[in-house]
Design goal:
Layout (H helix, E strand, L loop, with lengths): L9 E6 L15 H6 L2 E2 L6 H9 L4 E8 H5 L15 E7 L2 E7 L10 E6 L4 H4 L5
């Protein structure tokens, strides 16, 4: 499935706890990402629903903010650009929408722009204001 048009400026990875600081070149995969064989990502519009569905009981979350164009060219977690086709973002239909999945690369200091700590106040939708 093609990327949304226009593509988002940022994608987000939701984490239930703080990542190591400073970020390493390769963050460990979640159990879900390891099982599925790709890294689950969300657009700013998708983060609140995903957070409510999978992290509804959490009082705080950590978000990795990643420029879409950095991932789209195949930038790995260590900052190297992999050869064409070996690292890619695929937009795939999932029951409740079209989501970005990162194949063949890791997240880390070389492709994560910012780490955001977010405290829940009400629903995640009421607590989150993210850049598209």
């Amino acid at each position: 499935m093609p990327a949304p048009s226009p593509p988002p400026t940022y994608l987000y990875k939701i984490l239930p706890s703080a990542p190591r600081s400073p970020l390493p070149p390769r963050l460990p995969l979640s159990d879900l990402d390891r099982t599925d064989g790709y890294i689950h990502l969300s657009t700013s519009a998708q983060v609140p629903g995903t957070a409510d569905k999978f992290f509804g009981a959490a009082a705080e979350l950590w978000l990795l903010k990643i420029k879409y164009e950095v991932l789209a060219v195949g930038t790995d977690g260590d900052g190297t650009v992999k050869k064409e086709g070996s690292a890619e973002v695929r937009w795939e239909e999932v029951g409740r929408g079209c989501f970005a999945h990162l194949y063949g690369a890791d997240l880390g200091e070389g492709n994560v722009e910012e780490v955001l700590r977010v405290k829940r106040e009400g629903t995640w939708g009421e607590s989150l204001e993210l850049e598209w």
